[in-house]
Amino acid sequence: MKQEKEIIFNGEFDDSEEEDDDQSQDQESDEEQTKKKKKKLLQNTNKNLIMNVSDTQYPVVKFVGKMIYKFKLQYVPYQEVNNWDFCWTDNAVLPETLAKMQSHQKINHFPGMYSLARKNHLGKNLNKMQKQFPDEYDFYPRTWMLPSEYNDFKQQFGKAKTFILKPEASCQGKGIFLTRSIESINPTEHYVAQRYIHKPLLIDGLKFDLRMYVLICGCDPLRIYLYKEGLARFATQAYIVPNTNNLDDVCMHLTNYAINKDNPNFIFNSDEKKMDVGHKRSMSSVFQLLRDQNQNVDQLLDDIKDLIIKTFCSVQPILQQNYTQVDNYANNMCFEILGFDILIDSSLKPYLLEVNHTPSFTTDTPLDQYIKKNLIADTITLMNINLKTKNEIIQQKKDEMQKRVLTGKKTKLSTEEKKLIKLQCQKQRDDYESQNKGNYELIYPCSKSYDEYLQHSLKLYEEWTGANIRRNQKKESIQINQEPQNKSQSQPKKIILEKKSTLYKHVQSRINTNLFPTNKNEQNKGNEIIQEGEEQPPNQIDTIPEVDNDNFVPYEDYQQQSLESIKDLCAFTEKQGRELQILDLIQYRKVDNRLNNSHIQQQNVQSILSPLSSIKGVLQGIAIKNVKQFAIRKNNKNVKSSSKQINESEHEKLQENQQKQQIIQSQQLYQQSNPQGMNGAYIKPKVFSLKLSHPPKGYKLQSLPLLIQQNYTKFRYE
Ligand code: ADP
């Protein structure tokens, strides 16, 4: 592959270009022609491989696919066809896309990567690990999720401490500011607040950070490579430790290219051979400079690799969960190049600032063109994407099928057998990749064990999703089933949730793990993750507010924000060519008599109905109905609470009983109209609540409209 990579990319790619290799052959010597023929043989076979590029804006991706690997480029939306072999998209991938893929197909994202790529999710996941392993996870600056952790954050101010505040889902430095006073922060706004690393390592008096490219090419088990080349991005104003006079100087404190490139000081790279000058340099040139200054770069690199692996450990169970839907023992249908942004402080300690799941592949300088072209090409080689491998996989599947036909039964593998196959596949990958890794370095698996971090994050994940509850329940129900008098199969299973935190987590997990688009025509490009450089929606809304342990967050603020944001979100969504869905779910909420929801008025609802016209057909009707129903219920509650000034506890009891009645009725109704049971139910909010059984004492049902920036969703129940 080496000589092929030398094909020069100058930043442009003409999509309509058709190769015609035969034309030039007349003028070439026999030797050259034989050489070319050999090469062409390989290329021609690859021509039968289809690379779907319908959802990428980057010329460098198409260039590498077509000019280096000779893939046939396909422009039909990848969700609409299934004959591609390899798909490169600039957006997040849904679990359903993966579920439909065949084992020879590969895609450049893992479903569930939002858990690293969204600042608030990353913060939440790493904070949890930090709690358990404070010293081992100290590479992430102390972080607070606002507004839910506002009170704790407030306590941190004083003694000239500086904090950096970042919108939860933004990129390119947008909306970021530094502060030393709590008064400058709106306590209701959503931000990720972080201790500001005030003594960064400087080069030429300038702050800089590193964009490191990390390839995750397996999640079960983790398989991680670090690219040996990357970018160093410099600020354009000489650095001075933060003081009240310079907090606003973004070109001093922020190293984003998007911010600094407009500064007249910015020196652009103009030659790929001069990677060590200007405000965007190669990572290797910065390491060389540090080595020349006798800095311990090897230690720095070891620390960086360690932090990368630990970061993945914190979300491995989430990725694995999303991956279980494919029977892919080779663990290689998804891969993803992530941009890790690393800041080094003056004592050469690296800090993780953020992880980008769609690092920019913009190639506006020769430096970018060179690095990114090679990065993508090395990735394709490492992922073993070629016709030979495809055919082998297909043949293997055929053999398995034939065996089944001959023996007349489906060979069900035991866990041990599966483990063994996985190990064999891993060994094969080790052999292949060690010979074909280009400029990548395998950093995990490695000699050091990360098991304790992986185990802890699994424990956290199970607590969060309620998997541990379900497991315990299963055990219990097995015990119950062993007692013959307790056979009551017609009764729906009850999930007993005693602690409010467990209850909350369970609800949250049902939402997080059960949202899928329903039909293939209605899939879209991924939901909540915003691509670098892409415009973000105004007031990006999470599906669920942050919550931790026993802190039960009141929903009022959240709901108010949701409703008020519908309009903006609709407009944004329409602009993006996507559809906004509104889903009415039911949540339990602690009865606290906060019934004064005067902000949700009929008038308010009317004003949000008109943008819903952007939703098509029958979906529109359902969306409007959901919003209306929500408002009506809310208004009814308001009326009830103000008119009946009854004893508080009596009122609660009454409501609780009414709710229970409603549950039973809706259960009957639902069962009548859905003879197959609960599988595939959608927009049946009461069904959702039913599975959670009756509200525990002290809780009542509360409706929460979920705004989902993707197509229709359904719930899947076991
Ligand atoms: P964005 O996704 O908008 O680029 P980042 O988290 O990468 O957000 O922050 C933007 C820039 O702000 C970084 O490139 C870095 O220069 C600076 N920065 C971010 N967090 C910190 C921090 N905790 N301490 C010091 N500088 C920071």
From TrEMBL:
<dbReference type="GO" id="GO:0036064">
    <property type="term" value="C:ciliary basal body"/>
</dbReference>
<dbReference type="Pfam" id="PF03133">
    <property type="entry name" value="TTL"/>
</dbReference>
<dbReference type="InterPro" id="IPR004344">
    <property type="entry name" value="TTL/TTLL_fam"/>
</dbReference>
<keyword id="KW-0436">Ligase</keyword>
<dbReference type="GO" id="GO:0070740">
    <property type="term" value="F:tubulin-glutamic acid ligase activity"/>
</dbReference>
<keyword id="KW-0547">Nucleotide-binding</keyword>
<feature type="region of interest" description="Disordered">
    <location>
        <begin position="638"/>
        <end position="658"/>
    </location>
</feature>
<protein>
    <recommendedName>
        <fullName>Tubulin-tyrosine ligase family protein</fullName>
    </recommendedName>
</protein>
<keyword id="KW-0067">ATP-binding</keyword>
<dbReference type="GO" id="GO:0000226">
    <property type="term" value="P:microtubule cytoskeleton organization"/>
</dbReference>
<feature type="compositionally biased region" description="Acidic residues">
    <location>
        <begin position="12"/>
        <end position="31"/>
    </location>
</feature>
<dbReference type="GO" id="GO:0015631">
    <property type="term" value="F:tubulin binding"/>
</dbReference>
<dbReference type="GO" id="GO:0005524">
    <property type="term" value="F:ATP binding"/>
</dbReference>
<feature type="region of interest" description="Disordered">
    <location>
        <begin position="1"/>
        <end position="40"/>
    </location>
</feature>
